[in-house]
Specification:
This protein is an alpha+beta fold. The protein has one domain: Alpha-Beta Complex (Spore Coat Polysaccharide Biosynthesis Protein SpsA, Chain A), CATH 3.90.550. The protein has 7 helices and 15 strands. It has a 9-stranded mixed beta sheet with strand order 2-1-4-10-6-13-9-7-8, sandwiched between helices. Strands 3-15 form a two-stranded antiparallel sheet. The protein has a two-stranded antiparallel sheet with strand order 5-14. Strand 1, helix 1 and strand 2 form a beta-alpha-beta unit. 40% of the residues are buried.
């Protein structure tokens, strides 16, 4: 299956570290040159329909959305499913065998989230009218927990996804790419109710909010146990910047 590892040109060391960290996965990883949000003009953002006019997002969030938008268009046009990874994630060594078993079992599917941030919540559907909402420990993985995670052979199921934050690895089908383009672009600042956080209403500040407001509208699943875990270090993040502005 085609794969994309999203990496900014100005951070080649992140891709190099990704390759070293995940050398045991058996995947021939392909680097994808990420869009630099610092270089996007209003005209380019509006032409790509990345952001609804008048919405407020950081340049990092818009750059991240532009990278995914380009990948989704490739998947839809080529009619070929693909794996998409962030360059800070750690991947289980048995990912290939797990996906070979999981994906056919889903029949028709749009999106399978392989892993997500562990400093927030995960909300999955167990059966109609039954949910499981969970948190994780450790909140932030380190080298020791990453190594244990990669060697893990715990069972992996694909369950309908209600809510997660920071998808760090995803499998996307061609029909899923089309649905994501339709439902998540252009991004706006819609409020999203997060049941697992006491029904808090959170404003959409990036693709997380758009996803969490739309997962119920298409065939979105998540792996549990996860096959991918991100470091999610905001101190080195190129998405969670502090330059929010109004676009359009």
């Amino acid at each position: 299956m085609k794969n994309f590892v999203i990496n900014l040109d100005r951070h080649p060391e992140k891709f190099e570290n990704f390759l070293k960290r995940n050398a045991g996965c058996g995947i021939a990883f392909e680097r994808f040159s990420a869009t630099n949000g610092l270089e996007l003009t209003d005209q380019e953002v509006m032409a790509m329909r990345l952001v609804a006019p008048g919405s407020q997002f950081t340049r990092g969030a818009v750059g991240g959305a532009a990278s995914l938008w380009r990948i989704l268009n490739w998947i839809a046009k080529q009619n070929e499913p693909a794996l998409v990874f962030e360059d800070d994630c750690t991947i289980r060594h048995d990912i290939i065998g797990r996906l070979e078993a999981l994906l056919p079992s889903l029949g028709s599917w749009d999106l399978l989230v392989l892993g997500y941030n562990t400093d927030s919540i995960l909300d999955l559907e167990l059966a109609q009218g039954m949910k499981s909402m969970m948190v994780f420990r450790p909140i932030h993985p380190d080298d020791a927990s990453d190594a244990a995670f990669q060697r893990s052979n715990s069972q992996v199921a694909a369950l309908r996804l209600n809510c997660c934050f920071g998808p760090a690895g995803t499998a996307i089908s061609p029909q899923g790419a089309s649905r994501l383009l339709e439902l998540c672009f252009p991004m706006d600042n819609r409020p999203v109710r997060i049941e697992a956080l006491g029904n808090r209403m959170l404003p959409t500040i990036g693709l997380d909010g758009m996803g969490n407001s739309t997962y119920h509208l298409f065939k979105a699943y998540a792996c549990f146990a996860p096959l991918v875990v991100p470091r999610n270090n905001n101190a080195t993040s190129t998405t969670y910047t502090h330059d929010a502005r109004i676009w359009g």
